[in-house]
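Predict structure. Input: Spermidine synthase 1-like, 362 residues.
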Amino acid sequence: MDRENNGFAYTESYDTLHVRGLKEDRKAASHDAKSTILSSLAAARQMENHELHGETSLAIPGWYVDVSPGYPGVASLYKIEKIMFHGKSECSQDLLVFESSARGKVVILNGSLQLAEMDEFAYQEMITHLPLCSIPNPKKVLLIGGGDGGILKEVSRHACVEQIDICEIDKMVVDVYRQHFPDIAVGYEDPRVTLHLGDGVKFLKHVPQGAYDAIILDAFQMMGPEAEELADDCFMESVARALRPGGVMSCPADSLWHQEFSLADFVAKCGKTFKGSVSYAWCTVPSYTSGMMGFMLCSTEGPPVDFKNPINPLNLEHYGVAKGPPKFYNSEVHTAAFCLPSFAKKKMFESKMKKKYAALQK
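Output follows.
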């Protein structure tokens, strides 16, 4: 991070796109609407030029530029009101927290948008309650990642849960969320929670077989080799091994709008690993690039799990350590989350037909 004249400059690198940005300008507050519009138009022209000339640097004073490698040619702009934290941890993770003008506090981890205060609850609630409401009386839950504490907060709503383990690789992440997002990090106040600081891959190697009823993976949003290691087949096999028969796993999955995302392949891969039920769900999260987030729900071989029909509904009067009822999740939303749009159904059907045809040719 470069600091100049008490301002702020922030640089992130991507495979083919280098975004240089963000100088908090004290004069920005005095800009009128016309100058803001002109600045935005100028920024748009700069971005167009940047796309045409890959080495061009893009700098927009007072704004954070969020560029997702999965959506080339697309960027989101966040007007910065105040930089609240920026630092690099002992795990070499770069964490940025700023107050935005439209979506509350925003968290960027290693150049990837992790959370915006305006809509974080949609993701946190869905990735938690979709699996936990699909099996009867889950007692032992493991969370890999999720250092912000939001998923812990949602798990706390389930009175039947007796043990909540979280493995988070970076203590700085935990500390920053506790300081700047106390209403989210309140999940750590649940006495059932045990925090394990360390690598999730190594942690699972020491977990006894069938130890958990549910495992929630919140680590795929981060970028870099750690995320790749978590996403490989060996890791997923260790997740399946740590689940009891009929246990469930949930993790983030790509948006259906991601052109390179093959839902059929992902479902087949998960089915081969977990050997039980596999379903894809989704919800809207405006702060993410495509405006939606996908979830993969898997169960291990054993008692069948029908993810689409919750059998363990939330008691909306039991808040756990949360300050109030869920803002997004309910049983109707649960069922609706598994409905696929027609284009996704078509791709799934075509993929199945291709595989059947290929099998017949052998």
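The radius of gyration is 21 Å.
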